[in-house]
């Protein structure tokens, strides 16, 4: 695994419930990829190979649009190490979730 992505999707919809509904659909998509992910309060992290991670970032936007958001913005953080492994979600967070 040479890449990780932290993504925060911001659908342009009215009301907190609608934001949560659209974001929940995006999270369900990320989980359906089968890649290791971690859902946090402000972003979801997922790890895999670089091309897959980039496709997931694209698809998250399309899922939000399909879910009814007329437009969507996002914040992305991508860690990429072409010749090795990136620091995993578990290594970064396990000591805080025991």
UniProtKB/TrEMBL annotation:
Q: Which domain of life is it from?
A: Bacteria
Coiled coil stretches, renumbered: none
Source lineage: Bacteria, Bacillati, Bacillota, Clostridia, Eubacteriales
Q: Which Pfam families match?
A: Thiamine_BP (PF01910)
- Give the matching Gene3D superfamilies: 3.30.70.930
Question: What protein name applies here?
Answer: Thiamine-binding protein
Q: Which residues form the Thiamine-binding protein domain?
A: 6-96
Describe the family membership recorded for this protein in Swiss-Prot or TrEMBL. Belongs to the UPF0045 family.
Query: What organism does the UniProt record list as the source?
Result: Hydrogenoanaerobacterium saccharovorans
């Amino acid at each position: 695994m040479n890449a990780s992505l932290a993504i925060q999707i911001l659908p342009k919809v009215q009301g907190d419930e609608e934001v949560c509904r659209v974001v929940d659909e995006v999270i369900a998509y990320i989980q359906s990829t089968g890649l290791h992910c971690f859902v946090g309060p402000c972003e979801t992290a997922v790890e895999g190979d670089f091309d897959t991670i980039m496709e997931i970032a694209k698809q998250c936007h399309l899922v939000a649009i399909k879910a009814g958001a007329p437009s969507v913005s996002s914040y992305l953080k991508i860690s990429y190490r072409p010749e090795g492994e990136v620091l995993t979600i578990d290594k970064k967070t396990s000591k805080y979730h025991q």
